[in-house]
Design goal:
77% helix; Growth Hormone, Chain: A; 3 domains; mainly alpha
Length: 461
Amino acid sequence: MAVRDKLVPVIVAFPLFLQNLDASVMATTLPTIAQSLHVGALQLNLAITSYLLSLAVFLPLSGWLADRYGAKPVFGAAIACFSLGSALCGMANSLTTLVLFRIVQGLGGAMMVPVGRLLLLRIVPPAAMVAAMVWFTVPPAIGRMVGPLFGGAIVTWTSWRWIFLVNVPFGLLGIALAAIFIHDVHDTKVLPAFDLGGFVLLALGLTGMLGGLETAGRALMPGWLSWAMALLGLVAIVAYVIRSRTTASPIIDLRVLGFTTYHASIIGGTPLRIAIGASPFLLPLMFQLGFGLSPLDSGLLTIATAVGALATRTLMTRAIRRIGFRSLLLAMTTLTSLFYMSYGLFRPTTPHIAMFCTMMFGGLVNSMGLVSLQTLGFSEIPKPLMSHATALSTMAQQVSISFGVVIAASLVSAVAWLHGGDGAHPTASDFSPVFVAIGVMTLTSLFYFRRLSADEGAEMR
C-alpha cells in the first residue's frame, strides 16, 4: 500500500479523532467546567446534549452538500466550522454561550465524518479498501485512548478551556493535510432540487430520537418526557420512510438498503453497534462505582479496548484474504459476544493485568468486526448513491450508540432494583448480568451475517 494510500484514510479519519477526543475529554472534565461556570454538573450535561442534537439536525445535509459543492471543499469547511466552534467554546463564560458554541461544533461534526468517509470511498480503489479502512480506524482509536488521560491532565495542570482550544491546531493541521494530499472526485451533473420536506422530517426524527435517548440516559428531564420525545422522533422517521417512496429525489435515498451487504451492515450490525455504545458507559461505571477505583485507575484500565483496536492493523488484511468477509464477521461477532460476557466475571479482586488483557483482546475482535462491516457494507453501492449511504450509515451509528447507553443504564438500574438496591448506587454484582445480556444481544447480528454469501466482497480481498 503506497504512502499516499495510507495518508488519505488517516486524514479523512482526523475528524473522528477530534470527535472521540472531544467526547472523552468532556465526560472527564464536566465537574471542573461546572464549577468554573457556577452551574450544577447535571445542568452542564446540556453542553453534551446540545452537540448531539446539532449533529442530528445537520447530518442529513452532509450528502447533499457534498454532491452539490464537492466532498473535499465541504470536508475542509466542516473541519473549519468544528475548529471555530471549539475556539468559541474555549472562550465561553456561561452555560448559555457554551451550549450555543457546542451547536456550532455540532454543525461541523455533522459534516466531517460522513463526508470524510465519502472521500475515502471515492478515492481508494476496491482492492486497497480493506487496508484503507484499517488505517481509517487508527486516529479514532488514539482519540478514545488518550482522551480520559488528556482531560485529567488538562484540568489538573491548566485550565479546562484548553480541552477545546487544543482542537484548533489539530483542525488547522487536518485542513492543511486534506488540501495537500486529497484530490476531489466530484460529479458535476445537475442535481435535483433540495428535499426540504424530507430534511425537516429527518431532522425532527433524529433530534427526537437522539435527544430522547440521550436525556433518558443522563436524567436531564422526566423519564416520560424523554421517551415521548424519542417516540415522536420515531414517528417522524417512519413518516420520512413512507414519504421517500413517493419522492423522486429524497435527501437520503433509502434504496441503498436494498443492497445485501449494506443492509447487513446497517440493520444486521445494529446490535453490534449498540454493544459498542454500552461498553464505554458500563466499564467505567463498574470500575468506579462497583469496584471503588479512582477515575485515573479506571481510565488506565479502559484504554485497553483502544489499545486492542490499534492492533487491528497488523491482522486485518491477512485475515480477510485467508477466510473472507462472511467468516470473519461470524467469528468476530461471536468472539465479541463472549468477551462482553467475560467482562461480567470481573470482580474487585481480579488482577488489573488480567482485566486489561481481556479488554484489550475484546477491543481487537470488536474492531476487526467493525472494520469488516464498514468495508463490506459499501462494496455494492453505486457512486451516485454513495453520499446517501455514508450519511445514513453515520445516522445509524449515532442512534445505535445512544441506544446502547440507554439500554445499559436501564439494565443496571433494573438489576440493582432486583438485588434490593437502587440504580443510583450499583454494586459490583449488579453489572455481571448486564454484560451477559449485552453479549447475548450481540449474537443476534449473526442471523444477518449468515445470509451473506461466502465470496461476498471478493473484489476487495
